Amino acid sequence: MSSTQLRGVLHGLPGVDQVGQDARAARLGTRSIKNEAKARAIDLAISMVDLTTLEGADTPGKVRAMCTKAVRTAPGAPTVAAVCVYPDLVKIAADELSGSGVGIASVATAFPAGRAPLAVKLEDTRQAVADGATEIDMVIDRGAFLAGNYGKVFEEIVAVKEACAGSVNGGEGAHLKVILETGELVTYDNVRRASWLAMLAGGDFIKTSTGKIQPAATAPVVALMLQAVRDFRAERGRMVGVKPAGGIRTTKDAIKQLVLVNEIAGPDWLDPHWFRIGASTLLNDLLMQRQKLATGVYSGPDYFTLD
User: Fold this and answer.
1) Could you give the residue numbers annotated as active site?
2) CATH of domain 3-295
3) Integer Cα distance of 290 and 299 in angstroms
4) What are the residues whose beta carbons fall under 8 Å from the beta carbon of 165, sequence distance 6 or more?
């Protein structure tokens, strides 16, 4: 798709009513659910978590411990969807998670700034896939996007998608999650355009943020991205997932996300194949709330491993 065609499509999208978008997201955030539904929602949220550690001080030991936690969440509870680590730690995670069914996501492409030559980003991606990554979380070049250079952003996503091809997933290659870093996109119109650009370029998921920039996964932004994937499937016939990340720390936060999914995109997206929650501390709260529903009492925070 040429730059002119992209500009025509992206600037032909309807504008976002900011006041209306904020109001609808706030309204949906007040929904409450009964305990029986809450128990199902907690387990669903656990199964959607991308358990994440993205710190400069990450060690192989920390990653191994996180992988154990990802699989052995709690008796009767599901495993998380994936662990998410830096590319140099993918092999550690892949060895620990072999045969578990838990995915290995890696933030390749010069995360979190994305300021690197394309050749570096592609080599970063290929190496992560070769080491066992089943999912790649790439960051877009926000500077190029904000400068209106949509063609460059589109071409980079296409190239990274091609680099995701490999021997994982039974030969399917790694899935590509495209991080928009919505906190730097300034306007809701830009969030909608970036979402469509990422989907048109072949992204399997669109993701709100790196978790390094605030605001991150705000309810209006997640709602807008859910509208985008819903409309994209209706117009283009392809289903794309959504991953909010950054600031989702409590069970209440997670359930609000599930309400948004159900009410805006629809129940087809209430599945870890199509909706993920990127988080590092959320899992503990989900497990604590799960135990509270089962036993009637809270466990102390030290009952679960600290991340």
Assistant:
1) 137, 207, 243
2) 3.20.20.70
3) 10
4) 129, 173
pLDDT single digits (tens) 45-88: 999 999 999 999 999 999 999 999 999 999 999 999 999 999 99
| DSSP code string of 137-167 | EEEP-HHHHHTT-HHHHHHHHHHHHHHT-SS
Dihedral over Cα of 64, 67, 71, 72: its sign: positive
Which contiguous run of DSSP H or E holds residue 2? none
| Rounded CA separation 216/183 (Å) | 6
Residue 4's H or E segment, with its range, is: helix 3-11
Domain ranges of the chain: 3-295
Write down the pTM of the prediction. Answer: 0.95
Half-sphere exposure of 204 (CA within 13 A, CB side): 21
With a cut of 90, say whether residue 307 has pLDDT above it. no
For the record, the structure tokens of 200 come out as 């048109």
List pLDDT tens digits, range 127-179.
Answer: 999 999 999 999 999 999 999 999 999 999 999 999 999 766 666 789 999 99
CB 186 within 8 A of CB 145: no
